[in-house]
């Protein structure tokens, strides 16, 4: 047996052993594997596997490995079977198959296999780290500023989170669909990245960089303006019992000590779906339509579930422009054009945080004022985004480092490898 084959075999066995060891940890199983949020995120790895190669051998490998993991956890270790756990284990099995694809690929295909493996590792570690980062933010910021955000919301005279929440209560099917799309955000992120990858590596890596930057930069802003969302403040009163305008106007605005994830301002869910839509511009018409629907349903879910105020979504727009400009600076996409939109995005986000904290009464002078401020924010952000403009997904021949990219992975419905 050749040395290279022996090394690959050893790495494969180590990956399998490490996977079984990981899923055998009781605390990891209860906190992460059985979580619907973690499970939906890990399920996106299966979609990466399916989108990049339709292979009967890989599909059988993924499902047999999933079955082995389920039997190991449920039958041998006695852990409780749940559908979120099954989704998580399928995601882990898909990650293992993607790893095998990378280490067993011939040299001519290994670079593309590595680009496919990158987002899979990002999804696993980002899902795992997010909870810890939010927990540390809660410790660092024991008080939240939700009353300031709610005061602005009420100053518009249209409390949309409550209206959409009531709509979800009346139409459970609509609420279910929106929440499923909301939970499946990582699936849309993965498919957008892979769609770009199959057209242009440089654009795909730009997209991946933008998604990687969003969480740490966003959590930094969570510490500047910690907030929870209206359902945490109103409890059982959400969504049917908002305050009347005059009651909200007389609120004594102050930080309040409450438990919960400080992940409202700005909305990173909104930021990510905006990025999905931005980077999907160069994809097929169907993919662009799916991205647009994803944006709409995710935005409805963010406010209808009471996780966010509308202003969280508004501030996410200049925040998105800032992330795109920062990404282009880091990856070298027309750097000279990025400083202005980066400054605009950062400036508008900062201006909103200061205004919401120290000038809330200004918005109560007339309901026209908050709406004009929102419209101005969207207009300025649009101009900033146009300034960052870089063709979304150029033809396949404009690949990374300027060399043409050969695409060894069969991706069409008729391309079935065994």
Which short descriptors sum up this protein?
single chain; 418 residues; mainly alpha; two-stranded parallel ribbon; two-stranded antiparallel sheet; globular; disordered C terminus
What does this structure look like?
The chain has helices at residues 3-23, 26-33, 36-52, 56-76, 83-104, 107-140, 146-155, 160-170, 172-183, 185-197, 201-224, 230-234, 245-249, 268-279, 285-304, 310-331, 339-358, 360-363, 368-387, and strands at 54-55, 143-144, 256-257, 416-417. It is mainly α and 418 residues long. The chain has two domains: 3-117, no CATH class; 141-400, no CATH class. The strands form two sheets. A two-stranded parallel ribbon has the order 1-4. It has a two-stranded antiparallel sheet with strand order 2-3.
Produce a short descriptive summary.
This protein is mainly alpha-helical and 418 residues long. The chain contains 19 helices and 4 strands.
């Amino acid at each position: 047996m050749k040395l290279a084959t022996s090394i690959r075999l050893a790495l494969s066995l180590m990956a399998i052993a490490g996977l079984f060891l990981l899923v055998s940890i009781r605390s990891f199983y209860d906190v992460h594997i059985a979580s619907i949020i973690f499970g939906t995120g890990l399920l996106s790895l299966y979609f990466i596997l399916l989108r990049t190669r339709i292979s009967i051998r890989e599909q059988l490998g993924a499902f047999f490995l999933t079955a082995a993991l389920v039997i190991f956890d449920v039958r041998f270790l006695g852990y409780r079977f749940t559908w979120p756990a099954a989704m998580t284990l399928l995601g882990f099995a898909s990650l293992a198959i993607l790893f095998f694809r990378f280490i067993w690929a011939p040299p001519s295909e290994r670079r593309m296999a590595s680009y496919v493996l990158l987002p899979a590792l990002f999804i696993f570690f980002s899902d795992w780290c997010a909870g810890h980062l939010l927990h540390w933010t809660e410790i660092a910021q024991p008080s939240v500023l939700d009353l300031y955000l709610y005061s602005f919301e009420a100053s518009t005279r249209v409390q949309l989170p409550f209206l959409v929440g009531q709509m979800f209560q009346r139409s459970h099917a609509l609420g279910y669909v929106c929440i499923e799309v909301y939970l499946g955000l990582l699936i849309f992120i993965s498919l957008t990245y892979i769609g770009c990858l199959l057209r242009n590596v440089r654009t795909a890596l730009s997209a991946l960089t933008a998604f990687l930057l969003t969480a740490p930069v966003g959590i930094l802003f969570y510490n500047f303006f910690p907030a929870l969302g209206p359902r945490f403040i109103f409890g059982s009163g959400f969504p049917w019992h908002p305050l009347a305008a005059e009651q909200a106007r007389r609120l004594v605005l102050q930080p309040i000590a409450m438990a919960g994830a400080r992940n409202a301002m700005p909305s990173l869910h909104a930021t990510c779906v905006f990025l999905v839509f931005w980077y999907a511009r160069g994809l097929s018409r169907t993919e662009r339509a799916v991205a647009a629907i994803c944006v709409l349903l995710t935005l409805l879910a963010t406010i209808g579930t009471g996780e966010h105020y509308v202003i969280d979504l508004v501030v996410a727009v200049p925040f998105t422009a800032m992330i795109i400009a920062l990404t282009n600076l880091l990856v070298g996409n027309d750097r000279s054009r990025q400083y202005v939109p980066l400054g605009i995005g950062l400036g508008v986000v900062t201006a909103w945080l200061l205004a919401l904290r120290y000038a809330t009464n200004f918005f109560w002078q007339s309901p026209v004022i908050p709406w004009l401020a929102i419209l101005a924010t969207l207009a300025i952000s649009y101009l900033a985004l146009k300034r960052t403009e870089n063709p979304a997904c150029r033809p396949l021949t404009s690949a990374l480092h300027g060399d043409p990219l050969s695409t060894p992975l069969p991706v069409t419905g008729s391309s079935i490898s065994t």
